[in-house]
Amino acid sequence: MLLSIVSGGVKLCLLFLLVRAAWFFLKSLFVRSSLDNVPGPPSTGNWIVGHFKELFHRESWDFQHDLYNKYGQIVAADGLFGRKWVFVFDPLALHHVVLKDQHIYEETEQLIQMDLLLFGPGLLSVLGETHRKQRKMLNPVFSINHMRHMLPIFYEITDRLREAIHRHVSRGPCTLDMLNWSTRIALELIGQGGLGYSFDPLTTDCANPYGDAMKELMPAMLPLMKYRILLPALCKYTSPRLRRWLLQRIPWEPLQKIRRIVDTMDRMSHEIYDAKITALRKGEEAVVQQVSEGKDILSKLLQANMAASDADKLPDDQLIAQITTIVFAAMDTTSGVLAHILHMLAEHPNVQDRLRQEITGAIRANDRNNLSYDQLSELTLLDCVCRETLRMFPPLVFLPRTAVKDAVLPLSAPIRGRDGTLMHEVAVPKGTSVVMSIHASNRNRAIWGQDADEWKPDRWMKLPDAVTEAHIPGVYSHLLTFLGGSRACIGFKFSEMEMKVVLITLLQHFKFSVPDDLEEPIYWNFGGVQWPSVGRKSDVSELPLKVALVEEEVEA
């Protein structure tokens, strides 16, 4: 009986996909679309995959560079099964997608279902009223005022990082994998600051199942990304119980690895949640005995939820889902950007020296005490380095939305259609995949100038008028890095503070440079999360940098 149910569910999913593919194929043959005239790269001639391989290859940067610089600020590329993907980085069009008409351009069903299966019903995987309620509950715990209270926790953690690295280089300069250290410190910062939970002592190597699962999640997801198109049908026509039964019996290691990772995250999230609830019910004395003394985001969230009205309260499953959501989002952003900053400083030693002078000067003026939140904000070059790196290397390169009804995207500058006519707006049919091109917006030469592809922190000392006049709809500093609108990154201030505290701690004591003995240059690969490797062919994710004590460099 069960096997017949399974067989029926699988057949329904396959039938759904076949009908959908046939519909798109016939539609592409006989129905003209308003998107047919939007400029873009020549067709590959492959109706099934379109430009998918060119876009989602680890070395897709050259293809993306041509895509964004040859055809204008809105580009049409061929998606799967003959569908068009519309890449948008025109500021006015982005304003409509992100802000004015954000109710029209919703998260894609594939992405929502994937996040729901990975993390549960957290902030990344819910829509509409549920998303509004969750964000309303979370906004106060990510406020600047709360960030100030967490700063001492951050200094304590980064001091352990300094101690750990010092042990490696105390006898002389050596090469360290700074991606590994960036990931470890990012996980511990969000662990203590976000959850009141310690993942990693940093000073010793210590395995933690939850931390290891979070580190492995994105690399493990890559082999499965091409099958994400199956999720809407699979979730619609099968029950959670049936999907679980199938999942346990499919003998494919990439799928089984994801199952083990998600099971570990779910189990540990429940343990962390139960411990927090127990402490809160015991009273203030039990709360302050925990890691972070109850100042962490999760403790504050649970306290706020207990005090909320019945209408605003979040159920347990949504609260538990915030745990993996918060850790994933924070670790993903901070570790990658920190590694990029250290790499850029290693390649630009003059900027590194100037930044170190700014930091040590501020520390000395403060009688060598840790800098306050406001004093951190006054470090001009540090701010410029962080902003420029977030501009050049956003953790998320692009993000798709789906038009839920017919719409029109106005353009700030006209584009020339495939037929040679000037287009001042683009009609977007219902169901179109509209891709917000974060990377392209942040490097738009019409806004940032012809040197937009160069890492120049000093550009932030005085921004061009074109930048301020473009009105990019991002929540952070004329950039789309942290998105905007109701789905903007809620923790961008948290992430920014993490990065700054880590950098002022490291740069006071260590100097970073590119090792002379690397066989090939460090290359940042495209993916769900950008990752560095030595050369373009290596599958090992690493950022080897030569690290030396600052005192040694001065004495030399």
Tell me about this structure.
Its cofactor is heme. The chain has 556 residues and is of the alpha+beta class. The chain has one domain: Cytochrome p450 (Orthogonal Bundle). Helix content is 54%, strand content 11%. It has a 5-stranded mixed beta sheet. It has a 3-stranded antiparallel beta sheet with strand order 4-12-9. Strands 6-7 form a two-stranded antiparallel ribbon. Helix 7 packs parallel to helix 22 and helix 15 crosses helix 18. The longest helix is centred in the middle third of the chain and has 32 residues.
Set down the secondary structure blueprint:
Elements: H1 2-30, H2 52-55, H3 61-70, E1 74-78, E2 84-88, H4 91-100, E3 105-107, H5 109-119, H6 128-138, H7 144-169, E4 174-177, H8 178-195, H9 209-221, H10 231-237, H11 240-249, H12 253-282, H13 284-288, H14 297-307, H15 316-347, H16 349-365, H17 373-377, H18 380-392, E5 398-403, E6 407-416, E7 422-428, E8 433-437, H19 438-442, H20 445-448, H21 465-470, H22 492-509, E9 510-513, E10 522-525, E11 531-534, E12 544-549, H23 550-555
Parallel strand pairs: 2-8
Antiparallel strand pairs: 1-2, 3-5, 4-12, 5-8, 6-7, 9-12, 10-11
Helix pairs in contact: 7-8, 7-22, 8-15, 9-12, 12-15, 15-18, 15-22
